[in-house]
C-alpha cells in the first residue's frame, strides 16, 4: 500500500505535517472489493478520493447500456475532484473498483476551508490539487481529440501516438476497458488491433503495445 507522502496530493508536505493534517481532516480509510461502486451517478459529492491501493474506473453509462470509461485511476492518484465545488451538484458518473481497493476519503470541507492558522501545508495541498486538476483537464482534452477521429483505425492510431513513450504504450486497461475508453465495440477493436499487428505496425504483448512503424500510424 502506498504511503501518503509518496502521492502527488501530499507532494512537498512533510510526514509530520501530514500526520497533523490527518488529525483535523476527518478523513477515513475504506476498503472496496472488485466491482463495488464507490459512488453512483446522482449521489451527492462529499469526499475527494485518494487511492492507497488498487484501481478505479470512472464511468458513464449510455441509455443503450454501453459504458464509456472516462478515465482509470490507480494507486497514488485521486478522483472525484471533477465536482470540487461548494454547490455540491450530484455526480454525473459512477466510480467502480476494478480490483480490491483501499481509499482515503478526504471531506470536501477540509479542502474548501483553511484553518485559523492558515497552515502552509494546507495551502500546499490546495496547490497540489490545482496541479492535479490541470493535468486531468489536459488528459480529457486529449481524449476528446481521440474521439473526434472518424474511423476506428484513426482512433487507435491517434491514441497510440498521444500515449506513446519510448516507442511503446503501457496501458493499464484490458481490452474491454480500452474499447470503452475509445467508444467502440470490443470485437471491432480486437480485429483492428490484430490487423495492425499483421501489417507490422504494432506488436501486442498483453497490456503493452510496441510501435514498430510510427509513419504508418500517422497515415491512419
Key traits:
alpha+beta; 220 residues; 11 strands; elongated
Strand content: 15-25%
> Roughly how much helix do the residues carry, as a percent range?
25-40%
Number of strands: 11
- Quote the distance from N terminus to C terminus: 41 Å
**Spatial order of the strands forming the largest sheet:** 1-8-3-6
Estimate the global geometry from the Cα principal axes: elongated
| Count of alpha/pi helices | 7
Could you please describe the fold and organization of this structure?
This protein has 220 residues and is an alpha+beta fold. 38% of the residues lie in helices and 25% in strands. It has 7 helices and 11 strands. It has a 4-stranded antiparallel beta sheet. Strands 2-7-4-5 form a 4-stranded antiparallel beta sheet. Strands 9-11-10 form a 3-stranded antiparallel beta sheet. A hairpin with a 5-residue loop joins strand 4 and strand 5. Helix 3 (120-147) runs antiparallel to helix 4 (152-163). The longest helix has 28 residues, at 120-147. The chain is elongated and about 60 Å long. The mean pLDDT is 88.
Amino acid at each position: 500500500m502506498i504511503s501518503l507522502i509518496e502521492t502527488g496530493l501530499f507532494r512537498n508536505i512533510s510526514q509530520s505535517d501530514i500526520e497533523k493534517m490527518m488529525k483535523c481532516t476527518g478523513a477515513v480509510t475504506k476498503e472496496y472489493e472488485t466491482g463495488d461502486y464507490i459512488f453512483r451517478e446522482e449521489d451527492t459529492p462529499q469526499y475527494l478520493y485518494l487511492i492507497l491501493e488498487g484501481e478505479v474506473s470512472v464511468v458513464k453509462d449510455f441509455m443503450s447500456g454501453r459504458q464509456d470509461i472516462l478515465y482509470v485511476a490507480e494507486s497514488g492518484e485521486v478522483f472525484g475532484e471533477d465536482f470540487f465545488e461548494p454547490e455540491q451538484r450530484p455526480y454525473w458518473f459512477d466510480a467502480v473498483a476494478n480490483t480490491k481497493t483501499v481509499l482515503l476519503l478526504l471531506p470536501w470541507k477540509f479542502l474548501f476551508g483553511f484553518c485559523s492558522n492558515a497552515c502552509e501545508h494546507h495551502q500546499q495541498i490546495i496547490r497540489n490539487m490545482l496541479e492535479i486538476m490541470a493535468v486531468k483537464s489536459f488528459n480529457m482534452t486529449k481524449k476528446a481529440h481521440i474521439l473526434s477521429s472518424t474511423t476506428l483505425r484513426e482512433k487507435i492510431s491517434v491514441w497510440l501516438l498521444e500515449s506513446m513513450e519510448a516507442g511503446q504504450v503501457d496501458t493499464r486497461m484490458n481490452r474491454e476497458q480500452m474499447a470503452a475508453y475509445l467508444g467502440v465495440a470490443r470485437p471491432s477493436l480486437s480485429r483492428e488491433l490484430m490487423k495492425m499487428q499483421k501489417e507490422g505496425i504494432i506488436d501486442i504483448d498483453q497490456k503493452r503495445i510496441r510501435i514498430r512503424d510510427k509513419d504508418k500510424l500517422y497515415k491512419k
